Amino acid sequence: MRIPLLVLIIALVTVMLLPGPIANLRAEEKYTVPLDQIVSGGPPPDGIPSIDSPRFVSVEEGDKFLGDSDKVIGININGDIRTYPLQILVWHEIVNDIIGGIPVAITYCPLCFTNQVFNRTVNGTILEFGTSGKLYNSNLVMYDRTSKSLWSQALGGGIVGEYTGVKLERLPFDLAYWKDWKQLYPQSKVLSKDTGSARPYGADPYGDYYSSSDILFPVSIKDNRLELKEIIVGLENEGSYKAYKLQDIEKLKVINDKLNNKSITLFSLYPLMSRLFDSTVNGQALIFQYNVTNNRFTDKQTGSIWDFEGKSIEGPLKGKQIVRLPFDQGYWFEWVAFHPETRIYS
User: Fold this and answer.
1) What average pLDDT does the segment 239-266 reach?
2) pTM for this structure?
3) N or C: more exposed end of the chain, with fewer CB within 10 A?
4) DSSP readout, 165-225?
5) For the chain, domain boundaries
6) Backbone phi, then psi, for 251, in 5-degree steps?
7) Which CATH number does 231-344 carry?
8) What pLDDT does 29 receive?
9) 190: part of which helix (H) or strand (E)?
């Protein structure tokens, strides 16, 4: 395993070794998690630099440094479609951006393979996030540059400081292979490698970590119901938690389910990429099935045809749109460490 050495290299290369305002946690601060479980990941605050003035190129330019199998985060807000390659995010972990007029933070924790997109506006204040250099349950701990509060990516909320207990709004996104994303959205803007930081983009500092069974930092609980690095989609509704193996969603194409009496459906047409919807239309919970002949979805109640965006394009419900919902996607060990009471879909 090469992680510990490379983490130290990253810290040294940044030359940002002065202790920051969040370097030492104080017991008198507000907090919602055990302070002794927030540990150093190696680099100091901002030792892994966030991208705060992102630049973008076209899909054609993106093709010059992205291969078909490269993984990307894709986001569409108000018709503003953007792509964030993991080969860039692995060196930065946070991008502060504005998409479709909404200030957002695109976040990636390589240790947990967790991606999440947050609205950066909290109580009317637009926050800018950076990496704290700390981890909680082996997961990215961010800080905001306004209050210096600590935020857990996995919990989507403040865990130490002024914003303790405050939740960030999560926004839907896609994890996809570049081949599929550029086919779906050829007009997408692509995060440029011109980030202002000198990094060997295309080389992954975590090496064989993704294929290894090792976990490098402590977690509060380990649950062997699934392989620790099984990629899952995690859902939460009013205190109920459920995990779905990504490979099951990919295989079935459609999963209709309920979570604490909320009717939901999961769609998948491409590897890695799955989408969650509220399946209720006009007060009725629709049951969807995959139609292999046209690579679309059909609801059993009316026979209407639906596309991957959750819009009915043919039939009695033509023009109707089911609401897309955010979810968590990443390694099982991370999800269950935060939600040990979770059930597994089968």
Assistant:
1) 96
2) 0.91
3) C
4) TPBPPB---EEEEHHHHHHH-TT-EEE-S-SSS---TTS-TTGGGGGS----S--S---TT
5) 3-19+34-191, 231-344
6) -70, -45
7) 2.102.10.10
8) 75
9) strand 189-191
